[in-house]
Amino acid sequence: MAIDADTRLKVQVVYESNNWSAREVKEYRFADIEEIKQKTIESWISKYKWIKNRFASEKEAIEELIESSLPLEEAKSIIKNKMENEVVEGEIVNDDDGDDDKYSEAMARELSYQVLNVHSLQAEMARNLDSTKELAKNSKSIGVKKTYHDMLTKTYEVVHGKNINITPKDPNDKTLSSQEIKEKSDEELDRLIKGS
What we know:
Elements: H1 5-16, H2 22-29, H3 38-48, H4 56-69, H5 72-85, H6 101-138, H7 142-160, H8 178-183, H9 186-194
Helix pairs in contact: 2-3, 5-6, 6-7, 7-9
């Protein structure tokens, strides 16, 4: 099967935005696409003259842009507000002058990046589920279908927590137990995860 230009573009973006080898690009980001081989990536690198980590300095600039574009001042005030309204035990490193601004700013930045990372991971999980869904749907192996079913269950637990209490969209508005969730079909779990 020929690899379309959009997929090749995605591979190029990953290669040129990271300091990864062709093997690492395949392994870390495209392991689920069988058509993309390490040798294929290497041939594209050579043919199209891709440059590894081409945008290293731009990555730093974008990081600064994100820092200035994110509502860091608002996040910082949330942290300062908590510190003012609660007794915060423990000393803050390098806080000789008693100014909490550096701490609040560093904490706001860290929490903002964690939130962005969670959203990125959720998007990655959704892409993985979508690509695996086709494999499971076309497979006759019960093991493949069970693996996909387990992936759906685990993804739901990651997104919504370990204690699974789902209120499905039905007239009875019945809450499902963990055991009932495990007994649901893949299509039913997929609908419940997406809330449709």
